[in-house]
Amino acid sequence: xxxxxxxxxxxxIAGIARRLDRPLVLVGLMGAxxxxxxxxxxxLLDASFMDADEEIERSANRAIAEIFEEFxxxxxxxxxxxxxxxxxxxxxxxxxxxxxxxxNAETRALILExxxxxxxxxxxxxxxxxxxRRDTRPLLRDGxxxxxxxxxxxxxxxxxxxxxxxxxTSQGSQDITSLRILEAVDAWL
Length: 189
Ligand code: S3P
Known about the structure:
By secondary structure, the chain is α/β, with parallel strands linked by helices. The chain has one domain: Rossmann fold. Helices cover about 55% and strands about 10% of the residues. It has 9 helices and 5 strands. Strands 2-3-1-4-5 form a 5-stranded parallel sheet, sandwiched between helices. The protein starts with 9 loop residues before the first helix and ends with a helix. The model has no long low-confidence stretch (mean pLDDT about 95). Bound molecules: shikimate-3-phosphate (S3P).
């Protein structure tokens, strides 16, 4: 499928930034590019960026895998919701969330109320390739990553589709994905 050429001037991007009165909250599966695209988006918007997973690790003073091991997933989801709520109260223009955050009903409601959720939807081959780069994700440790990601994609699609904006990403450039998001945000505003 050929996409329309991307054309957003600096002035148009600045206009979008001015009209945005809430943080852009990136949601989607592990490996979809939320953190990388989030940083790029924030730079384009001249806004600050925060990765919720990093902030969870900082506040807990533990790696996410350790939190899962020591306290379990439910405890992690609870902390994740509190951290995301706090970040949305602070002055971040773009927040990247962990892949399961928007699947949790309470966290999803919070993001839908106070942020603008952007679902980065991505094909399985790309997700498998990107997540293979590091072994820090507890959910991908017990089994075949392709099978796990395929199952999660299926299970989570309904939750992710509650996001007002969906952008399909693949192995293409993060710049193109960022501009597509901005075009979608512009149309949404
Ligand atoms: C998770 C995704 C991870 C991290 C945790 C659980 C998930 O974040 O929050 O390992 O449930 O999909 P990334 O999506 O940034 O990898």
